[in-house]
Prior knowledge:
By secondary structure, the protein is of the alpha+beta class.
Amino acid sequence: MDAVKNYKMMELAKKQMLDTCDAWGVPHKMAKDIRIASRHNLDGLKDYFDTETSQGFKVYGAFYDYVDDLMGAISSYRNSRSLRETYNPMGKHKVLTKDQARSTLGEFFPRSNTDVHIATSSKEVGTEQNNPKSSWNKSTDIIVSISWYRAVFQRGLAIINSSKGKRFVLSAKPIDVKYCQEEGMTVYRVTAVAFKNGLGTSEIGYLCTYGDTSQHNPAVATADGKDAIPHSYSDTVTKAYKLLRQRAVRNMTKMFNT
Length: 258
């Protein structure tokens, strides 16, 4: 798509966003607040919706997500233009990380409400639950480092499989494990998010893969988890190593039996 078509598309997105605000009587300036703040901290915006009821909060959430998605697309477009003209690597990584993390969470965990935030230090990386006892307005703040796009997504490690379901990876640090390396495995110390009943909880584990993953050859490529390269995840390196070896043997057996 050429630059003119991109510009027209973004102008249309901006018009639709403003028209939606007008339809609900929400001031245009609140669109910026939606982009930078969690839905649970926008008391001013809640005044325009009946958030005391389940249905009212769902409408509020739908409005928030719609405007946030459009603002995200517009912001990404504007930043991409600016980044082509100005050397701003930190700004680029921040935009790429937040937009891609939101997209990945939406694709693989569509039933969980999440808000992505950029950590100011590595110690802040993790999760924070909001209204965990509620049946209709609970959500999870996902806090990732500014380098998540490069260090996790481009390595193809944003989503991994575990014996208890898919995990969203917050960080992945390669570590040297001699007996794994001797068998062609790559090992990572991982901080991941497990989702249950609509809420996310962070955990520490170890990931073993055969060969190298990448953005174009990820560990898990589709939401059903079937299109994945061989990998295993557990709470210890030894368990992950043994599990991956077992899977490799099973795959080899199937190959010889077909």
